[in-house]
Amino acid sequence: MPLFDTLQSDLNAARKALDKPRVLVLGTIFSDAKNRKIELRRDLTDDEVIDVLRKGIKRRRESIEMYAGKRDDLADKERAEVTILEAYLPASVSDDELRAAVKAAIAAGATQIGAVMGKVLPQFKGRAEGSAINAIAREELSKQG
After folding, report:
1. Residue 125, CA atoms < 13 Å, CB-side half-sphere
2. How far apart are the C-alpha atoms of 82 and 80, rounded to whole Å?
3. How many structural domains comprise the chain?
4. Do the beta carbons of residue 26 and residue 11 sit within 8 Å?
5. Domain hosting residue 107, numbered range
6. What pLDDT is stored for residue 12 in this prediction?
7. Average pLDDT for residues 124-143, to the nearest whole number?
8. More confident of the two residues 59 and 126
9. pLDDT of 34-84, one tens digit each?
């Protein structure tokens, strides 16, 4: 079953179960995905739905940082939403696997952060965060210097 349809059926199940927090977060993400579908004028692939999910998670993480220390109740709500959304993402890649790919890119001649990211990021699209890859790439490049 495509991820878009899974989101829709889970949203309907949450509505029937009167699970208000889940309805709210799934409704928002489903709406974002539907808007993306309208924008592209075609059905979304699972990778495109995953992009929508990652953007939603990123927005919520930024909110958590903003609320930190001031509004713990809102930060906790955002954390709960991130947990719900992360369940729809494919299993993430281990740091060791990322590090091996970064080392391979450096060995292949990528000496700048942009070149390394350009080679490594497409390999892990939808399975790893760009920030994690970037941190490992910077660390490995500093060892080269």
Report:
1. 10
2. 5
3. 2
4. yes
5. 95-144
6. 96
7. 81
8. 59
9. 999 999 999 999 889 988 998 999 999 999 999 988 899 999 999 999 999
d(CA 74, CA 80): 10
132 & 103 share domain: yes
Are 49 and 100 part of one and the same domain? no
Over residues 107-122, the pLDDT tens digits come to 887 778 888 888 888 8
> Residue 145: is its pLDDT beyond 90?
no
Quick check: helix, strand or coil at residue 76?
Answer: helix
Is residue 73 domain-shared with residue 106, that is, in the same domain? Answer: no
Q: What's the Cα-to-Cα distance from 71 to each of 22, 63, 117, rounded to whole Å?
A: 21, 10, 36
Give start and end residues of each alpha helix (H) in the chain: 3-16, 20-40, 46-67, 72-86, 95-107, 113-120, 130-144
Evaluate whether 100 touches 116 at the Cβ level (below 8 Å): no
Contact partners, residue 88, CB within 8 Å, separation at least 6? 3, 6, 7, 50, 53
Q: Which residues contact 58 (CB under 8 A, 6 or more apart)?
A: none
Helix axes 113-120, 130-144, angle to 10 degrees: 130
Mean pLDDT computed over 86-94: 83
Least Cα distance to 7 among 61, 55, 54, 46 occurs for 46
